[in-house]
Specification:
2 copies of one chain form a homodimer. Chain A contains 10 helices and 13 strands. By secondary structure, chain A is of the alpha/beta class. The first copy, chain A, has 2 domains: 6-113, Quinone Oxidoreductase, Chain A, domain 1 (Alpha-Beta Complex); 128-315, Rossmann fold (3-Layer(aba) Sandwich). In chain A, strands 10-9-8-11-12-13 form a 6-stranded parallel β-sheet, with helices on both faces. A 5-stranded antiparallel β-sheet of chain A has the order 6-3-4-5-7, with no helix packed on it. In chain A, α7 links the parallel β12 (234-242) and β13 (271-274). The longest helix of chain A is centred in the last third of the chain and has 16 residues, at 300-315. Chain A binds chain B through residues 54, 60-61, 220, 223, 227-228, 236, 240, 242-245, 248, 254-276, 279, and chain B through 54, 60-61, 220, 223, 227-228, 236, 240, 242-245, 248, 254-276, 279. β13 of chain A pairs antiparallel with β13 (271-274) of chain B, so a sheet runs across the interface.
Chain lengths: 316, 316
């Protein structure tokens, strides 16, 4: 093989407030040399997740991404050179390669992927976003038919899938998103029952109109004021699936938490539970079934919508 | 029967800040006249619980206690006159009588109690406090042998029992209480492993020294800054049993929530869950077994300690 160089995106500087292009730097690194048990892969699609921003703030469930290092992130990649029996050149895998063209990753840290078209589905419905939505909504939120599900960052990669799965499960679904355009998209394209534009003001009141029977499951991607507004409207024995806290990621120091914690959690017997998608990777097959052709015959509307949406979103 | 009057304690005024004797008024009301299906009871022991204060703030899981009405509360009471087949004069019951000498209560809202000595055990280990501690710690917190359990308001009626049950379950137990005297009592009399005086300052650091391996179960009675300090020291997959928010009850408006909600809940995959003891009343027998003579032969130290403590506390 004659590969000249390995393009990499470094985190040039740890952001102290809003993240921007100035915090990154494109560079050319050396080609990694896989050791025994490692696999050299070529990155095909990088999964850009909100969690990436959180990793820059400090140690979370993984070490912090520090200035000067290759930006961390998962990707769909193709095996180029294998030093482990379970993979061969041409295999598709998912792994924590970082934002670079080539990476050398221990074989045991890679997950084999099927070859499907479009390949982008492997980082959307079948990837971090889809698996996060699936396990967070169903295993943590546990919605029942007829219940009201609210999801924040609803037009995001995870939120948009959460709402669609909730519709498959016969729930009333309300998305919270920023801006009228996103809200129209959620209702008209994805089939959400209601969409609330948090930027239009009067969030609490608008949400109340959209969820007149209260909230049974809140899938939280944002924390902060939106968490607070939802918490106050939760029904008794409601569940909050804590997936992320996007509203906090651009802050240098953590803000105060939502009012009503823990008072309303007690009074309403709520359960707020956090999760990380990687904890569910061993149950990946179960999740993928909901998006598979077999399942989609029964709920083709949502599967078709989902694929179309994700294509649409990539064009923006 | 010739009973002259019914002494009652009214909530004279809704407190806007710290609760004091000035918010109550002793008065003489009329003797209640039980209708069909109701039971006239004489109150023997009133259960004074932190939740009583919360009820004055507004509607919770029950209607607010409003100025001018008899203060609400549960009590151990004796049946005086029965208009339902399941109770007869002399029976001991638990019910929501309010703070008065006599009350007329629907038979179906009463729980029959055994006659045990001292009767005070019926409002401590066998009462609201004991049942709250039992179900909150074991069903919500679910501690495992060897885990670290932290309880706030540890010298209170609930907290002191939580710690003792956690010891029975072979946990490392740390109590957070206000003042050196309470802390000495927790360690020397109740057998807590460590006690942290939150009034001495440096709560975070002191707690860290007391729980060097982090916190697996936090039984929260207080909310606020103590919740925040514990949250930051929770271990991955830790559980927070949300029992009350004493730190908030004297406030006119709700304060901001603890920092780290929901960010740390996500990162550490925590579960914070609220509960109300009355939801568990149908499982009362299971809880009482842990304090029963049969059980106490195996763990007599804790049962003896518990009885002695509760007597000691009543004298203060």
């Amino acid at each position: 093989m004659a590969i000249a160089c390995n393009r990499q995106i470094l985190l040039a500087e740890t952001p102290k407030s809003k993240l921007g292009p100035e915090h990154f730097k494109l560079t050319e690194g050396e080609m990694p040399k896989p050791a025994e048990g490692e696999i050299l892969v070529r990155v095909r699609l990088i999964s850009l997740d909100a969690a990436n921003r959180a990793w820059m703030q400090g140690a979370t469930y993984r070490s912090a991404v520090t200035a000067g290092s290759v930006m961390a992130g998962g990707s769909v990649a193709e095996v180029i050179e294998s030093h482990a029996p379970q993979f061969k050149p041409g295999d598709l895998v998912f792994g924590d390669t970082g934002w670079q063209e080539y990476a050398s990753v221990p074989a045991k840290a890679l997950t084999r992927l099927p070859k499907i078209e479009p390949m982008t589905n492997l980082i959307s419905v079948y990837g971090i976003a889809g698996l996060t939505a699936y396990f967070g909504l169903l295993d943590i939120g546990n919605p029942k038919s007829g219940e009201t599900v609210v999801v924040s960052a609803a037009a995001g990669s995870v939120g948009s899938i959460v709402g669609q799965i909730a519709k498959i499960k016969h729930c009333r679904v309300i998305g919270i998103a920023g801006g009228a355009e996103k809200c129209v998209w959620l209702k008209n394209q994805l089939g959400f029952d209601e969409a609330v534009d948090y930027k239009s003001g009067a969030l609490f009141k608008t949400l109340k109109s959209a969820a007149p029977n209260g909230i049974d499951v809140y899938f939280d991607n944002v924390g902060g004021e939106i968490f607070e507004a939802c918490l106050a409207q939760m029904n008794v024995r409601g569940r909050i699936a804590c997936c992320g806290a996007v509203s906090q990621y651009d802050m240098a120091a953590p803000a105060s938490g939502p009012r009503g914690v823990p008072g309303l959690i007690v009074v309403k017997r709520l359960r707020a539970e956090g999760f990380i998608v990687t904890d569910f990777f061993d149950q990946r097959e179960r999740a993928i079934a909901i998006f598979s052709p077999g399942f989609s015959r029964a709920s083709s509307r949502y599967r078709r919508t989902s694929s179309r949406d994700l294509r649409t979103r990539r064009k923006r």
